[in-house]
Amino acid sequence: ETGVTQSPTHLIKTRGQQVTLRCSSQSGHNTVSWYQQALGQGPQFIFQYYREEENGRGNFPPRFSGLQFPNYSSELNVNALELDDSALYLCASSFQGEDTQYFGPGTRLTVL
Amino acid sequence: AQSVTQLGSHVSVSEGALVLLRCNYSSSVPPYLFWYVQYPNQGLQLLLKYTSAATLVKGINGFEAEFKKSETSFHLTKPSAHMSDAAEYFCAVSERGGSQGNLIFGKGTKLSVKP
Predict the structure, then answer these.
(1) In terms of C-beta density within 10 A (0-12 exposed, 13-18 middle, 19 or more buried), how is residue B53 classed?
(2) How many helical (H) and strand (E) elements, i.e. helices and strands, does chain B have?
(3) For A78, which of B21, B22, B52, B94 is 20 to 30 Å away at the CA?
C-alpha cells in the first residue's frame, strides 16, 4: 500500500505567476483535502474533493482552485501568486465516511 | 464554530521526563479530536485520535491523550521523553466528523528534548 505522495517537493515562483501542485492519494482513498501551512502556523484548510466534486472550502479566494481525477489524484492550482502564498502545501487523503486523514510530505512553495 | 488552542508554542523537557502538551477545543458538535506530529521538513503523521469511544486514547510511540468534556481538553502525554520525540505537535478538531469535514488545527507546540 503506497502512501500519499506530492510533487514537486520544492518550487520557486515570482509574484503574479501561476502554479500547479500535484497529489496522489493513498491506495483506496476517494477523498482529498488540501491545506496551507504558513511558517510557524498550523495547517489551514483550503478545500476538499470527493468523487471529483468540491466538497467543502475554507476561507481562500477563488484564485485557489482544484481538480480531482477519476483515479483520485488531485491538483491544486493557484493563480496570480502573492508573496503571502509562500507556504508548505499539504495534501491529505481519506476514505469518505472514515475518520482519519493521511498527509503527504508537502510541497514547499516560495513566491519572490 | 470549532477552534483549537494549544497552550505553549514551545515546550522543553529533559530526556526521560514527562511530556505534557496542552490542547483545548471549542466545538458546537461532539468533537472528533486528533494529535499529529510533524518532523522537520516533513508532512503530518497521525499520533492518535478520539472519536467518541474511550476517553483515554493510546497512540503510537508511547503517547496517549485523555478527552475531558467538562474541561474541553485533549492533552497529550508521554511518561518518558526520548530524543526522537523532538518535533512539532498539532492538535486538531474535525469540523463535521472525520474525513467528512476539514480539520481545524491549533498553532502547534514545538517540543525540545534535552539530553
Answers:
(1) exposed
(2) 0, 11
(3) B94
A9: DSSP letter: S
Distance CA B89, CA B37 (A): 5
pLDDT tens over chain A, length 112 residues: 568 999 999 999 999 999 999 999 988 888 999 999 999 899 999 999 988 999 889 999 999 999 999 988 999 999 999 999 999 999 999 887 777 889 999 999 999 9
Chain B interface includes A99 (CB < 8 A): yes
Give B73→chain A minimum CA distance, Å: 18
Interface test with B, best of A39, A89, A100 (most B CBs within 10 A): A100
Confidence of residue B100 (pLDDT cuts 50, 70, 90): low
Task: State how far the Cα of A61 lies from the Cα of B34, in Å rounded to an integer.
Answer: 27
Give the chain A residue whose CA is nearest to the CA of B48: A100
- Asked if A33 lies within 8 A of B92 by C-beta distance, the reply is no
**How far is the C-alpha of B8 from the C-alpha of A97, rounded, in Å?**
33
